[in-house]
Design a protein that fits this description.
With 570 residues, the chain is an alpha+beta fold. It has 14 helices and 22 strands. Helix 1 packs across helix 5 and helix 4 crosses helix 14. The longest helix has 21 residues. It is globular, with a radius of gyration of 24 Å. It starts with a strand and ends with a helix.
Length: 570
């Protein structure tokens, strides 16, 4: 059933067995798992059925200004049924896909050299739920076997010393979450999907011991309540802590925040331009065809270079996946991003100064030290050009990490490959100082906007550098050339500080003193409140989080069924 929050009578209370907050991929997955069962399910979505500017403004936030230049939360996600799935844009055969990867077994383990690492569940615990998520996405689990992608024309790079492996990212159709599951739930007899319904407070009793109902508002000003026996938050790493911290009537510090952990350990994946392979190209694109975006039978995907798990532990570095993309003859976009003849970065003093100036002008103020900021902006005009062309997409690249086909025979009119560039998707270390808090500004439904405190720390930078050195040696040993590694002020060149993969702000732990939710995704100390999103990740590896989030959502669905069946604490 489909309903519209802007038409629900103010003051009404709607009663359900389960209420799910957020109709992005995780919420849709969780609702689909419960749909058709014995429980009445409500799925709340703050946005409309498709993205629109008014609802999108609800995603806006604030970012602590520094040279690491993390993006505004509003730029990273869509407020609509389907959520950020609307942004997935990998092109294969005229359809749109998204990239999936599994966390490695080592990602779940405690690393003796990495503080705050370790999940309370193992890779084996999650494997059945990975399979369940893949079934919903229409993907064969066997597609993750690297050998499936190997044939005479597609060979992974050999590593003589075993320090580098090749992994696979598998793609799934985004329409599963932007069209198919929403349509299914809209027709359901047991699930009610309510759009334009922003949850602004979780009401509880017994000092957070049990959730009683949710306070909901629409952009039109309608306000109503949803009462439920179990509640699941499936919004991401910005909105989960935002809602928990804003729910203060019964618990002044916010729900689940007895140990001041809600919002801490914020992480993301950085996209780093590792460098360019320096060699006479010749047939190099064909030799690297394993790492091109392509189809293998019914599956679509691409290979990635990864530092082997045993090497990560020996070197005490974080993981990363390296994707290969060719460049072509200089284009208008390339020229705009190379005004000073150097590689550009999104981690830039010029961009930081531009953000300070923009924020001041937005409030009708003159920024302090304006002259210094203008000098920094002029010195980094190429970085600003890079940021603008990336955001507004005026000069799309012929090939990218989202568009392949470069290893195929050159066709008439196709640009010539000039170099092979390597991009890293980097794991970030869990740091309690990186966090999401509540700001003093509120949005159109009265919720405090999130504020992001973010730093890319020494281990993050060292790990990216060291991984590049290890992969470069493997390339040379394989006779593929040397990786010319790009640097700015001695640091790896960050093309994007975020891969739109925020995580970690309601971390999972068996111990309430070190985490917000337990191994089942239930908030510590609250009998009927669950979280199923990347917010629960203690560490995030380098793999895109979507598949793991879907698996966790399916697992939480089972925990809710068990809870409601037992009646414990309800």
């Amino acid at each position: 059933m489909l309903d519209d929050g802007s038409r629900i009578v103010s003051g009404a209370t709607l009663n359900f067995d389960v209420c799910i907050v957020g109709a992005g991929p995780a919420g849709l997955m969780l609702a689909a798992e419960l749909d058709g069962g014995p429980f009445r399910v409500c799925l709340l979505e703050a946005g409309g059925m498709a993205p629109d500017p008014a609802h999108q403004a609800l995603a806006d936030g604030l970012v602590e200004l520094n040279d690491d230049c993390y993006e505004n939360p509003g730029f990273l996600r869509d407020v609509a049924v389907g959520g950020t799935a609307h942004r997935w844009c990998i092109e294969v055969g005229g359809d749109r896909y998204f990239r999936m990867g599994k966390l490695s077994p080592g990602d779940f383990e405690r690393r003796r050299w990495l503080p705050h690492s370790g999940w309370p569940i193992s890779a084996a615990d999650l494997e059945p739920w990975y399979d369940r998520a893949l079934a919903v996405c229409g993907v064969d689990p066997a597609a993750f076997d690297p050998l499936r992608w190997t044939d005479q024309a597609h060979q992974p790079i050999p590593s003589l010393d075993g320090r580098v492996d090749s992994s696979v990212f598998v793609f799934a159709r985004r329409a599963v979450f932007t069209e198919e599951l929403p349509a299914r739930l809209a027709r359901s007899a047991t699930t009610t999907l309510i759009h334009d319904a922003a949850c602004v407070e979780i009401e509880s009793e017994g000092h957070g011991a049990r959730v009683t109902r949710l306070r909901v508002r629409s952009l039109t000003g309608r306000q109503f309540h949803v009462a439920a026996r179990a509640v699941a938050l499936t919004t991401g790493a910005f909105d989960v802590p935002r809602l928990l911290l804003a729910s203060r009537a019964d618990v002044p510090a916010g729900l689940g925040n007895g140990h001041d952990l809600v919002g801490r350990y914020f992480t993301d994946h950085q996209i780093v331009k590792a460098g360019s392979i320096q060699t006479g190209l010749g047939d190099l694109p064909a030799r690297l065809a394993y790492y091109d975006i392509r189809r293998s039978g019914e599956a679509s995907g691409t290979g990635a270079l990864v530092v082997a798990g045993k090497t990560l532990d020996q070197e005490q570095i974080l993981s990363s996946g390296m994707m290969l993309v060719p460049t072509m003859n200089p284009s208008p976009g390339w020229a705009a991003q190379h005004l000073w003849g150097r590689e550009t970065t999104n981690r830039s003093p010029a961009l930081a100064s531009a953000m300070v100036v923009r924020q001041a002008l937005k409030h009708g103020q003159r920024p302090p030290h304006l002259g210094r900021h203008l000098i920094r902006m002029a010195a980094g005009a190429d970085d600003l050009a890079f940021a603008l062309t990336r955001i507004y997409g005026k000069f799309p690249a012929y090939w990218s990490i989202d568009r392949g086909g470069w290893s195929e025979p050159i066709q008439p009119g196709q640009p010539e490959v000039k170099a092979i560039e390597a991009f890293q998707l980097c794991e970030q270390s869990p740091d309690p100082g990186n966090r999401v808090t509540l700001s003093d500004e509120v949005d159109a439904v009265g919720m405090p906007k999130p504020k992001v405190h973010f730093r890319w720390n020494d281990l993050d930078r060292y790990s990216a550098r060291r991984s590049q050195e290890i992969v470069s040696r493997t390339l040379e040993e394989a006779g593929l050339g040397r990786l010319r590694r790009w640097r700015r002020r001695g640091d790896p060149l960050v093309r994007q500080m975020t891969a739109h993969h925020p995580a970690g702000t309601a971390r999972m732990s068996a111990d309430p003193a070190t985490g917000v939710v337990d191994a089942d995704g239930k908030v510590h100390g609250t009998a009927n409140l669950f979280v199923a999103s990347a917010a629960v990740f203690p560490t995030a590896g380098f793999a895109p989080p979507t598949l793991t989030v879907l698996a966790l959502a399916a697992r939480v669905a089972e925990a809710i069924v068990e809870l409601l069946g037992s009646g414990a604490g309800l």
